[in-house]
Amino acid sequence: MVMLKREEILKMFETAGAVRHGHFELSSGRHSGTYVQCALVLQYPRFAEKLGQALAELFSDVRVDVVVSPAMGGLIIGQEVARALPEPKNPLGGGVPALFVERDASGMMTLRRGFEVRPDQHVLVVEDVWTTGGSTMEAIRVVEEAGGRVMAAGALIDRSGGRIDFDVETQSLLQMPISSYEPEDCPLCRQGSFAVKPGSRFARTAP
Question: What's the number of CA atoms in the CB half-sphere (13 Å) around residue 16?
Answer without folding.
Answer: 20
